[in-house]
User: Which sequence fits this backbone?
């Protein structure tokens, strides 16, 4: 019995950390609810230091497997399942959900103003840097929301 | 729109979260988090830094072509065309809001155009701008003009030049006229200078200083500009 408790605790702890890393930012920053300053700070902290939290969780889960190994097949498979769940939750937490919903435009394409194919009354966000002028249709930006661009020699981020 | 070069670094931004119905962005280079609406860094190594605003206007494509004949227009991603909606606002209007505005004069989803001049924020109701396309106003002793070109197309300028306040009134569909008779176009530039001024050979092409306009819902404008007042209320 002496090895059972530590491996279970280690494995469950690892899984909890990985799940918290996955769920906290999504829970706090779900749409249509206010975000208080403290909960927002916690969610952003988890996002920033998520890789370190997951490294810790992975090491804990691996240690649980090592401890469970001499205890026979049942313990071995229990610890391995917890390790896999930990790695799975960790992997999921590395997905940027917001960019899955509103895909980024890493290579934006442009047309001459007369060849945009837009109706005359379509609204664009217009910017001018020196002689260079670019327009970003609101209907496109309202979907992608963020666009990294360079106008003239000025790197800008277009937001909507 | 923001300049993304700051403190010698050029940053690449990604959508990274939601804060009270506005997006947060994260930059690849430092891993900091930024408010999309204010350009302020709120978490990470660059906390407290402020992106510099790049002036932009909401115009119709037709107006953009007139003003920038060599300009370029962003194309949508071909495989996303079905996701783009030209009239998405009627749907948005019905979505719930999370900020309480019951103590104020406007409903949360009232559409307003907001400006900030010399530290003072003021909201102009869309209905007011539609009824009154040229509004002369003053914020913190700075005279401004708001000029609606119809719908979302709205520009604001500091209506003074060389220390003199311009008294502008509609002249025709394309121009405003000042008290001396000069005509001003929608870019805020004098196009036909009154005889008295034309004698002054030193005068170059004169344009008013543009003021950034943000179209926003009242609840959101007020959340980020708590001291704002409402024009005419």
Assistant:
């Amino acid at each position: 019995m002496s090895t059972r408790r530590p491996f279970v605790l280690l494995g469950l702890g690892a899984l909890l950390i990985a799940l918290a890393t996955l769920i906290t930012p999504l829970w706090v920053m779900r749409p249509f609810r206010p975000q208080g300053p403290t909960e927002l700070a916690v969610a952003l902290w988890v996002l920033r230091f998520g890789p370190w939290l997951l490294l810790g969780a992975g090491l804990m889960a691996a240690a649980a497997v090592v401890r469970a190994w001499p205890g026979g097949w049942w313990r071995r498979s229990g610890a391995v399942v917890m390790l896999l769940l930990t790695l799975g939750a960790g992997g999921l937490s590395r997905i940027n959900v917001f960019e899955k919903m509103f895909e980024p435009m890493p290579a934006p394409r442009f047309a001459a103003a007369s060849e945009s194919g837009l109706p005359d009354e379509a609204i664009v966000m217009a910017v001018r840097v020196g002689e260079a002028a670019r327009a970003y249709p609101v209907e496109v930006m309202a979907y992608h929301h963020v666009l990294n661009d360079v106008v003239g020699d000025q790197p800008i981020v277009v937001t909507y | 729109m923001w300049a993304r070069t700051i403190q010698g670094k050029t940053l690449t931004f990604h959508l990274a979260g939601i804060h009270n119905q506005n997006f947060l962005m994260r930059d690849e280079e430092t891993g900091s988090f930024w408010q999309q609406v204010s350009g302020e860094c709120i978490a990470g190594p660059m906390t407290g830094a402020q992106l510099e605003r790049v002036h932009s206007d909401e115009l119709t494509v037709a107006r953009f072509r007139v003003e920038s004949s060599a300009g370029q227009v962003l194309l949508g991603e071909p495989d996303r065309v079905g996701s783009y909606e030209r009239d998405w606002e009627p749907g948005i209007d019905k979505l719930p809001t999370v900020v309480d505005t019951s103590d104020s004069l406007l409903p949360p989803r009232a559409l307003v155009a907001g400006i900030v001049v010399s530290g003072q924020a003021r909201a102009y109701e869309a209905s007011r701008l539609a009824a009154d396309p040229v509004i002369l106003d003053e914020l913190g002793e700075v005279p401004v003009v708001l000029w609606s070109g119809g719908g979302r197309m709205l520009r604001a300028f500091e209506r003074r030049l060389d220390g003199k306040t311009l008294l502008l009134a509609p002249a025709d569909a394309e121009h405003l006229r000042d008290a001396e008779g000069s005509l001003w176009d929608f870019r805020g530039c004098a196009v036909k200078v009154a005889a008295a001024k034309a004698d002054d050979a030193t005068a170059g092409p004169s344009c008013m200083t543009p003021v950034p306009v943000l179209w926003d819902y009242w609840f959101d404008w007020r959340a980020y500009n708590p001291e704002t007042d409402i024009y005419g209320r």
Remarks:
- DSSP finds five helices and 23 strands in chain B.
